[in-house]
Amino acid sequence: MADTLTRTPAPTVPTDDPTAHGTARPLLAVGWLWFTRSAAILAFLLLWETAPRVGLVDRVFLPPLSEVLVATADLAVGGQLWAHVSASLSRALAGFVVAVAVAVPLGLLIAWYRPVSDLLLPLLELFRNTAALALLPVFVLILGIGEASKVALVVFACTFPILLSTVTGVRTVDPLLVKAAVSLGFGPLALFRKVVLPAAVPSVFTGIRMAGAASILVLVAAEMVGAQSGLGYLINSSQLNFQIHDMYAGILSIALLGVTLNGALVALERRWSRWRTTPG
Amino acid sequence: MSEHPRLRLDGVRQTFPVRDSRGRPGPPLTALDDVNLDVGASEFLTLVGPSGCGKSTLLDLLGGLARPTGGRILLDGRPVEGPGLDRGLVFQQYALLPWRTALDNVAFGLEAKGLPRRLRAARAREYLALVGLEGFADRYPHELSGGMRQRVAIARSLAFDPEVLLMDEPFAALDAQTRESLQDELRAIWLRTGKTVLFITHGIDEAVYLGQRVAVMTSRPGRIKSVIDVDLDRDASRDPRSDPAFARYRNRVWQELHDEVALARRSEFAPVPSEADRG
Ligand SMILES: Nc1ncnc2c1ncn2[C@@H]1O[C@H](COP(=O)(O)OP(=O)(O)O)[C@@H](O)[C@H]1O
Ligand SMILES: [Mg+2]
User: I need a surface site. Which of A51, B73, B154, B215 has the fewest CB within 10 A?
Assistant: First the structure.
């Protein structure tokens, strides 16, 4: 989702290019870059503001942006917004962290033992392609309507992207690097620690980033079905109570939450794979 | 040659199992057949042969990365049982760890040797300087040119002080100018360190320029066809490549190689059972 927006302009990001460090860009070019990057968003926000005002859409169903922002501010001041955000965030993070803690080591293990991966990969592929939300009723049946089923759903949705990209990362390690390390007399353990693991890091992070997006996606949907708090609940209940401004406030918050989470993960990924050549 | 050459290949033979397109086992592919060769201590020997004749296979065996199907490989009279730090390998594609700086790449082999961290950094710096890269210690491989990367790889293989340097077409991926300057530097390093060097190439000029002896291999199955002693006047101030003797050696190697290349080319088009070609 949001990752495509931030990743597309990668070639123009100065930090990606080691030779561009010293050369200061002319101010005009920087300004132009920011303009082109934000133009579409600004145009969209402008459309949101004007369309209801000029009667292009019914302002009952789509209030102008400024009114939504006021409603958002009201919710924020009243403390409700933060309560919902923190409810969603703590569920998403709990599930996400559990998934990372389980899936990365498991993925390494599966990939390192070839027969194990041959055995399990088809099953994992099946799980990954099973829409997590389809399992929500099952989780509710087993774990009840409370926190556990929601967190479990997030764990499920996050585990498979991480697992599979970890396996891919380990499997696609350049055989020549392995050969070079073996020729130096490194044993299997040192080989794993010094070559396989670092080589797999970028791929693992790709999976983690996908999991981050997935965690919010499934959580919000789960909160719409059965919850007393969280952004998904806020959106759904506002709609039911015809508090349309609050509904849009919730949607706006989710979008911001998603972008922020993705941005944080991308920054983390950059830090950990700074050695990588810029793609393309 | 003395009783114990540094490196001795004695009737070395290597075959690979082959499966046809339906996965059924066929007759094995003989990559090397009865390879006999001695390399003396501190000798610089170049090995030329047509592509696919088994040069890299031979290097894998020397590096202890694979065991020969038949014959023996002796290092200082002892059979090679596996990889070891008495041999340093240099590959055409550098094989540097992309997440490590030049310095840490050189230190990689020293970790294998079990050197303490502080000594590692000092030694790695010393060897980076040896290949003329003292100012590039903190660069990552993708920030270095191909020639610089190969210098780092050479420094890595020299730093742990192996007796033998085994190089598999190390300069083949470089442009002509970089290649020539690296050839000169390698020669200088060899003169300075007195290492035994086995240098694989498919370039005739390179083989004659670098080698004290040039071993020519047959097309597959690879055998040593002939070994040519090269005696060039290298003290002269001019480039030995312009020496008329250089042209004569060049021509002799070319003659030896010519039929083999033709043979290899013909067998490339012949219907052979499918095989995993590692290039
Ligand atoms: N692991 C392997 N399995 C099957 N065939 C191989 C293997 N390694 C090399 N070969 C074959 O052995 C022959 C020699 O290969 P190689 O040593 O790479 O040649 P060179 O380095 O001289 O170009 C080739 O025909 C190659 O396809
Ligand atoms: Mg080869």
Answer: A51
Nearest CA to ligand 1 atom 24: B52
For residue B143, the chain A residue with the least C-alpha distance is: A18
Assess whether the C-beta atom of B117 lies below 6 angstroms from ligand 1.
no
Q: Do A183 and B160 touch (CB under 8 A)?
A: no
Residue to substitute in B56, B57, B225 for testing ligand 1 pocket (most ligand atoms within 8 angstroms of CB): B57
How far does the centroid of ligand 2 lie from the alpha carbon of residue B207, in Å?
Answer: 15
Distance CA A84, CA A97 (A): 20
pTM given for the model: 0.81
Q: Which residues, at least 6 apart from A212, have a Cβ–Cβ distance to it below 8 Å?
A: A96, A158, A261, A262, A265
pLDDT tens string, chain B, 279 residues long: the values are 456 889 999 999 999 998 888 888 888 899 999 999 999 999 999 999 988 889 999 999 999 999 999 999 999 999 999 999 999 999 999 999 999 999 999 999 999 888 899 899 999 999 999 999 999 999 999 999 999 999 999 999 999 999 999 999 999 989 999 999 999 999 999 999 999 999 999 899 999 999 999 999 998 888 999 999 998 877 767 778 888 888 999 999 998 888 777 777 776 655 444 444 443
Q: Which ligand is nearest to the CA of B55?
A: 1
Residue A244 · residue A238 · CB < 8 Å: yes
Does B27 sit behind a cis peptide bond, omega within 30 degrees of 0 on the bond before it?
no
> Look-up: residue for tokens 């962290």?
A97
